[in-house]
Amino acid sequence: MKASVLTHSIRSGKFRRAIRLGLRSLWLHRLRSLLTVLGIVFGVCSVIAMLAIGEGASYEAQEALKKLGSQNIILRSVKPPEEQKVSNNQNNYVLDYGLKYEDIARIQATIPGVTTIVPARVMREYVWNITWRVDAEVVGTVPWYPTMRNHRVAQGRFFTDTDQRFAENVCVLGDRMAQTLFPLESPVGKTVRVGQQYYRVIGIMEALSTASKDEVMQSTSTQPAVDRMFIPLETAKRRYGEVLFKRRSGSFEQERVALHEVTVKVDRTERVVPVALAIKDLMERNHKKKDYDVVVPLEQLKQAERTKQIFNIVLGSIAAISLVVGGIGIMNIMLATVTERTREIGIRRALGAKRNDIVTQFLIEAVILSGAGGALGVLLGISIPFIVTATAGMKTIVTVWSPFAAFTISALVGVVFGLYPAFRAARMDPVEALRHE
Amino acid sequence: MTPIVQLDDVRRSYQMGGETVQALRGLSLSIQPGEYVAIMGPSGCGKSTLLNLLGCLDRPSSGRYLLGGDDISALDDDSLSEIRGRRLGFIFQSYNLIQQLNVLENIEVPLFYQGRPEAEAREIAIQLAIRVGLERRLDHRPFELSGGQQQRVAIARALASDPILLLADEATGNLDSSSGREILDLFDELNAAGKTLVMVTHDPNTGERAKRLVRLRDGVLESDVRK
Ligand SMILES: Nc1ncnc2c1ncn2[C@@H]1O[C@H](COP(=O)(O)OP(=O)(O)OP(=O)(O)O)[C@@H](O)[C@H]1O
Ligand SMILES: [Mg+2]
């Protein structure tokens, strides 16, 4: 019955005219209509904008963590606090800290589930091509480093087992340093100089995203992002010795570090957490000082997901609250409108309007209000992330569904909060309504 | 011939606090097609109550009301709305035009609720506006019109659905004598063209222009004179 009334209304153009009428009444009170919908506008706008910014931030974080590998556990050498320095004599320190080759052996021997281990030595050096110079980290590592760290070779190749066995002087350049050192030509096949040693360039790494580069940088320094040059670990051992001495200028302080970074790959994702616990335990028993750090990207990934979930719940609550507040605003103004237009309602009823016609009329106005507010909010909410990206350089992601959901829900708010005023209008006694004021 | 209006012992009472106010106490009345009836009587005698009943805006507390032969006492709200829109035309003392609509749109309102096509409604509205002499005011809004002009729009609107009965409550009450006379001339014209009219008035001169004068007192019929 209701449905047939509705289809009839639509067929006779009644519905279209009712919308036009609603628009007209709202236009008559432009300022009031605008003020009424501001609540919904800002509610929808802020939710879409915050969602986009949050989505962008969590995407970046997750990408960075994925680059580190969700099946990986990363151990890093960390310089222990000053007072624990081992001093040989008054002026001559040899600071001996960090990951040892024995650590790798122990992990491999005692912990099940560990498939691959990537050791890395990191040396801060100047890399030269004739007169071009780059301050870089020279990383001595194993051939399977790229697969383990999800960092691919863009051009040429990575070094092989053979290169490793013969301790060849070959290197793979980081993306940025390749451009700086060889601005005019392809570096593959050319040589670079580090100290007294010459290395043949055999490949160039892919560019890293900004966030993951920051993540990698945590390993050695807090300096601005430094590019890495990769050489075979054997080569590094030959050129720099089994352990690395670092002399600080102006003092006699020396550091001795065997390995800077060890990446452990676990066979199954479910085993990452227990293996990490076992490694932490093992390291604790064998290192008197806390001269290492264990990073589990998977845990961080999970943490990031939890954080995002909480963020989404908070956002959802804000959205719900602001929509309810906006809806109450609309209800309030619709009640005022209904009272104000009591006489008009009486006239329309006398001229043949059914209760349904009156409900439709006021409901349409409420939905136009909330829908327009929602649309305006969506427009603002979509533009704010662009402004944020343009000005603050933050990554933002406007998910496809969020504007649609926001618009639909705000239109629904109009229906929900417009129903009561509309029914109140329709229930009025025509005689009373005509006598009004 | 079926009477347009047939009232049988109609009563209407209102609950006011604890006590019952009897606005109409047993009224019987019959109005034939083409009649022009004036209803008069002292204030509070029940004239407006009667007109609201005739106009299906209200229902009798007891008694029977046949409009064009159909009993309306048993009808639901939607059917009453339908009858108001299709068979009745109202003219009020304070014009009761819808302020945000212009002349043509006001005339179209009853047609809108009947679901008539827009073009057809527009055609009817233009014809009626011409008939009441407002052809130069089609897109004016009510506040841009004089009282007499507004009342003429209201008459055109009442005629839009070609009703079987026109009801006017103090239609000239707010007008000066000359524009009041114009409205009454229009009523004469409509009646001459066959429309059945019932009007409530306080003014004896106005009442004189009708062909039948019904006097009420305290909710009952006092006199009923045909000329
Ligand atoms: N809604 C109502 N509630 C209570 N009493 C009412 C109501 N409407 C009318 N009455 C009473 O019914 C009686 C008749 O009222 P009605 O409005 O019909 O008088 P009237 O003849 O039109 O008077 P007037 O010439 O002043 O317009 C009055 O006593 C009035 O107080
Ligand atoms: Mg009255």
Question: What does this protein structure show overall?
Answer:
The complex is a heterodimer of chains A (437) and B (227). About 3% of the residues of chain A have low confidence. With 437 residues, chain A is α+β, with helices and mostly antiparallel strands. Chain B has a single domain, classed as 3-Layer(aba) Sandwich (Rossmann fold), CATH 3.40.50. Chain B is 35% helix and 28% strand. The mean pLDDT of chain B is 94. Chains A and B meet through helix 2, helix 12, helix 13 and helix 15 of A and helix 2 and helix 3 of B. The structure holds adenosine-5'-triphosphate (ATP) and magnesium ion. The site of adenosine-5'-triphosphate has 11 residues of chain B, from strand 1, strand 2 and helix 1.
Overview features:
heterodimer, A: 437 residues, alpha+beta, 2 domains, 6-stranded mixed β-sheet, 15 helices, 13 strands, 18% strand, elongated, B: 227 residues, alpha/beta, Rossmann fold, 4-stranded antiparallel β-sheet, 7 helices, binds adenosine-5'-triphosphate, binds magnesium ion
